[in-house]
Amino acid sequence: MSQVDFKNFEWNPELIERYNLAGPRYTSYPTAPQFTDAFGSDDFQAALAASNASQAPLSLYFHIPFCAKICFYCGCNKIATGDTSRCAPYLERVYQEMDLVQQQLDSSRPVNQLHWGGGTPTFLSHQQMRELMAETGKRFQLRTDDQGDYSIEIDPREIQPDTLPLLRELGFNRMSFGVQDLNPKVQEAVNRVQPRALTEDALHQAKELGFRSLNLDLIYGLPHQTPETFAATLEEIIEMNPDRLSVFNYAHLPERFKPQRRIKAEDLPSPEQKLIILEESISRLVDAGYVYIGMDHFAKPDDSLAIAQREGRMHRNFQGYTTHSDCDLISMGASSISQVGPTYAQNHHDTEGYESAIREGRFSTLRGLKLSQDDLLRRAVINQLICHFEIDGDAFAQEHGIQFGSYFANELEALAQHEKDGLLQRKGNHLIVNPAGRLLIRSICMVFDAYLDQQGLGKAFSRII
């Protein structure tokens, strides 16, 4: 493949081959392998209470782990079941967890962002959805002006004609639809048969109801995909005209995720084919008018995410790219991760462990971390680079009270090769990621990660591309 310029980034196969190593996605820094069980329920409780001093608005996340069917590619924390009665006791624990949170928080802090994820949140009955939102409103200051970002993940196969109107009534104004691929052979191989009409009808209904920033998720690297078949899927997706698109790389890890054992390795596209799919997909989306936000994400120029990136307000957390950098993220449900001030706290992964702790009247914190001052500085640098592709070290130094050039002297020296290869340019303490470096931004961020070389944690992550 020849070098290709995609407007705001550049495809350079030689550099991709050289820098395509394993590395974190930086939804947090330090990353999850650094979390420790020395951080427990009492520590999270103290972090919540301390956060009131900032009066920061809140972001709430609810993990609904239930699915009607297993998608073979899935690596999420989920429970496949046809027994909808299992939701009731789980929701009771979620309400109790909210009570525990409410005891520590100033209830006047507004909820500027709310998200239901999973699993499949629409596995809940309509009455349970109403109840969950009502119980949330009893404990937190939900916005009633439709100006917050209230979003939910949707499986178009698991909704009724009146589901989307209900969600709009409950206050949701954003949605993410799982699609993955529209090719029937690929869908059958991953146990997710979802005709285009299902997705398209749901998308049109959502637009008519006034939902904004509708996102579609795609996955490349699935069985039986070829550059040609995925290009055909992409053309159909572009016709559907979503506001945002996520194009994720499938990581085949059957030793970690049992459902993936149903996928035959010989049916997967080769690494070379995956790179062609990615290259052609990015080129096509940019040609279609989407802005390359970074990592796997694309948005229309007038979408709030693209606007936030242009204005320097974008942030990255466990939910990916977000426009709400000022919020404390409080997450509820099994496996969910909170980010409150200088701390991270993760709940028990399994529902049994989660529910047991909550029944005993304590937070279900399995592990977490209180960040050091060095962690906070590096987190700020990495967030700036991965969201905005540049950092003004002098302005950063003034804001944080350090000498940027001396504090990060080793890192700046390590970036000399990146600079020589054209991934970035350095003007004093001002680092600017070049178009060729945007696709490899994780490699640049890894230079500022104090833990990778120290403990060899790069082996715990998937490849950058």
TrEMBL record:
This is Coproporphyrinogen-III oxidase. It comes from Marinospirillum celere. Keywords: 4Fe-4S, Cytoplasm, Iron, Iron-sulfur, Metal-binding, Oxidoreductase, Porphyrin biosynthesis, S-adenosyl-L-methionine. The keyword Nucleotidyltransferase does not apply. GO terms for biological process: protoporphyrinogen IX biosynthetic process. S-adenosyl-L-methionine 1 binds at residues 61, 118, 153, 337. The keyword 4Fe-4S applies. It comes from the Bacteria.
